[in-house]
């Protein structure tokens, strides 16, 4: 079988996934705006990679597809960043006026595309399809200068996209690192909320992006890299499939806080900017009215809920749940744990779980997995990690030492 039908089939399959997923995300975005950026991200990718299908099915639109790819390229990274920001937000995320700055490169690309589409058809085909620049040389001087100016700005735009993508990838990685630390202030079990899939996706996308960026730059300066287009199409298919699958499955990590925290009142835990990260811990409770006496009372209530009522056995225990149980503000509980007890919610609850697990390991014949589930852990790996952290031993080592 020749290469062209395979490329066409892979491209059609990828575009079908994009179309279906984008439609589903738009429907979900009616309730939560966080899905809008991912829908736009997938749509932009669809525009960029559609060329093989357009070439086969709608050859008259090849030039148009190439031109509109210019504003679509710089949409991808900012949209993935805004989606990540929405998933990791402590409050119900909504697009704000400040977020519109992320679309300026795409707007610049759109302006170049609009001017390019106004060029006479022979010149468009010459610079985009046939590369017969002799036709451009024969154009009137003002048209020729305009074309060369557009080519220069297009190259700068593509180079800007390379740098832009690297910057947003860095922002996403930093955001996820802080987010995972913040999860431990709110949840006792975080495995299902850590967005590890985004790290793997970034790793894969990073490889595809580096290759694409290098190829685009070399194509504009020297000559493109020769590679097996089928392998590249397969990689793109896998990336899109993963992004669509996990994007449709994923819910915002702090969704439980949306109902417990009034949307009109800013949450002191909210991460407003990557630049503000170093100061979050210092300013977290600056305006709190919680006194030392109140903090001591709250600490006693928390201890009672854990030691006497065994609230830690709830595998889905969270800060809002604990707050509702002891009738106290979640922010006050967080402040009490961090400042009075000197521990994060995650570590505090898991310490009680490990203490109970030690009893089971010493006095029963339960398997390690059964013990983990009984004391409130959601997985064996999470149990091992917590047990090792609090005892410097694995559960197996502890059980062997107790026998």
List the helices and strands and how they pair.
Layout: H1 3-28, H2 35-49, H3 51-57, H4 62-87, H5 104-117, H6 121-130, H7 133-137, H8 141-183, H9 196-221, H10 229-249, H11 255-260, H12 280-283, H13 292-307, H14 319-326, H15 330-340, H16 345-363, H17 368-374, H18 380-391, H19 395-402
Helix pairs in contact: 1-2, 1-10, 2-4, 4-5, 4-8, 5-8, 8-9, 9-10, 13-15, 16-17, 16-18
Description:
The protein is mainly alpha-helical and 403 residues long. The protein has two domains: 257 residues, Up-down Bundle (Rhopdopsin 7-helix transmembrane proteins); 116 residues, Arc Repressor Mutant, subunit A (Orthogonal Bundle). It is 70% helix and 0% strand. α16 crosses α18. The chain is elongated, with a radius of gyration of 27 Å. It starts with a helix and ends with a helix. About 6% of the residues have low confidence. Keywords: DNA-binding, Membrane, Transcription, Transcription regulation, Transmembrane, Transmembrane helix. This is HTH araC/xylS-type domain-containing protein.
